[in-house]
Amino acid sequence: MRADLEIINDWIQPNSRVLDLGCGKGELLQHLIGNKNVHGYGLEIDPANINLCIENGIPVLDHDIDKGINNFEDLSFDVVVMTHALQQFRRPDLLLDEMLRVGKECIITFPNFGHWRNRLHLGLKGYMPVSEFLPYNWYDTPNIHFCTFKDFEILCREKGINIIRSAAVDGNLRDHWWIKAMPNLFSETAIFHVSR
Amino acid sequence: MPDTIPADSVGIVSPQIAKFDAPLALSCGKELMQYQLIYETYGTLNANHSNAILICHALSGDHHAAGYHNMEDSKPGWWDSAIGPGKAIDTNTFFVVSLNNLGGCCGTTGPTSINPATQTVWGADFPMVTVEDWVESQTRLADQLSIQCFAAIIGGSLGGMQVLQWSIAHPKRLKSAVIIAAAPKISTQNIAFNEVARQSIRRDPNFHEGNYTAAKAIPADGLGLARMLGHITYLSTDSLGTKFGRKMRHDQYQYNYDVEFEVESYLRYQGEAFSHRFDANTYMLMTKALDYFDPAARTGGDLAKVLEPATCDFLLVSFTTDWRFSPARSEEIVDALIKAGKHVSYAKIETSQGHDAFLFPLPRYMNALRSFLTRTKKKPVKEPNNAR
Which residues of B touch A73 (CB under 8 A)? Predict the structure, then answer.
């Protein structure tokens, strides 16, 4: 399982109702359903991913999240998860509000644009970072709202969102002391567990 | 006419008849004292009778869903694209049962059958039947075939409504429900279309208040007109436009009421062909069954509450250009299932074909169907590679 998914898996209580926004191939849900008796649904827009989820018996809904999630009722899920997708939506801030309307808690992961390598790329070389982790050019990237670990903390503060916990890890899920000390500089992936 | 039977066809099939002598109480308050259902089966029922799939047909469908009746058949059954060895509904794995519903005109008891009480054709006297009645009659067919629990029940459009009803009324008798291009109840607009269809039949001078058989007449014009109207609503603006555009019969306008545009000729042909193969009373009954279906009515519109008893896994499928049963209508069912905490997956298929798309073997649609029917739940997950 992908590194950030393992941490999320640890943060979700058994028997929870989970909504996974942009569930991809359904790895996280498959794990949660199989090991934690979680009752979950994934939202996905890619036909191949949707089919893979169906094949693996994971409840998946063909749903364009950019068109909203207002069909879900208030607090109808224990946890709403969004992994590596928040930066791809038109209004991440409004989506975050919606996620916290539907779920009692939310877990969000995103690539930390403040990672030192990105800074070097832009600061020294002078062009937008392209890496193994962010393999897109500026013109074809689905990541239209990059933010940093710190940016997200500020957004939460402004919105009065409670950060239950956060984690900062590198691409291999290692959480070295220097990542913990300076997550904004050293983490490749930021993981936030938030509630209202 | 097939020269040879394709390898992925169920081949030559023959319908069978199941007779029932126990009276069936109908929603309308009347009783059918005895009746018969015509059905076909494809594939082999396994030893513990756990591989059966029931196909529920739509408005003008019948029991002949796959294969050919003989080598002279011009076309295979109506869902041959999905049912057969190696196809999405794989008859190497599943035993498929497909029947003609009560009120039908293809061998099941309906308005064209003989009323045992009068020894004449039922005609207009055949009682109204509903989706609920159909499902009850289908459970009796399942009993006769010794199928306690279906691996899946599948239906499109009006057929999807039967699947929904099965999941609510007989939750223990199906493991999977596939509801395609359906709705929890039809829209006002749909009721309106149905009413125009019925009126065009009823106003045909050959209708004779439904007893046209006794009068040795057929309301072919009215039925044809009803079909023409229906047919337009099954297609999308795009699919009609692409198929015909403003293609004309002649090089220039004729300034008369004969066929000018090819689409007119197409519709006339569709109406004409249908009026010779289908019964007008059956058509009217089927449209009424569509109008009446509204399982959430008994809970004041709370579909999630009605769905509470359901225990099967659901797959819902809709088609982007379907305006007769739009994706939004399927999503009403999806949302209610989520609210009720049921296992549901949903695929919205991009297509230009409108409501009719449910009959076409669109790759994504067929893949979803195949994947759902053969899904493995709680597939063992690889243990995390403890990189920490």
Answer: 339
Question: Please, which pLDDT band fits residue B379 given cuts at 50, 70 and 90?
Answer: low
Told to judge if B8 belongs to the known catalytic residues of this protein, a careful annotator would answer: no
Q: Residue A101 in contact with residue A41, Cβ under 8 Å?
A: no
Q: Do A30 and B371 touch (CB under 8 A)?
A: no
pLDDT in the model for residue A138: 87
Residues with Cβ within 8 Å of B157's Cβ and at least 6 positions away in sequence, in order, are B58, B59, B180, B181, B182, B324, B325, B355, B358
Average pLDDT (B191-196) is: 97
Domains of chain A by start residue, with CATH:
3-195 (3.40.50.150)
Q: Let me know if residue B202 belongs to a domain.
A: yes
Provide the chain A residues 2-31 that lie in CB contact (below 8 A) with chain B: 3, 6, 9, 17, 30-31
Q: Give the H/E segment covering residue A120.
A: helix A116-120
Mean pLDDT of B27-31: 97
Residue B248 lies in a domain: yes
Catalytic residue list contains B157:
yes
Contact with chain B for residue A68, Cβ under 8 A:
no
DSSP assignment letter at B20: E
Q: Is B80 a catalytic residue?
A: no
Q: Which CATH number do you get for residue B248? A: 1.10.1740.110
Minimal-distance CA residue of chain A relative to B176: A57
Instruction: Please name the residue of chain B whose CA is at the shortest distance from the CA of residue A70.
Output: B335
What backbone torsions phi and psi does residue A191 show, to the nearest 5 degrees?
-130, 125
Mean pLDDT over the full length of chain A: 90
- Between chain A and chain B, the number of residue pairs with CB atoms below 8 A apart is 81
Backbone angles phi, psi at B212, to 5 degrees: -70, -25
Q: What is the ipTM of this complex?
A: 0.92
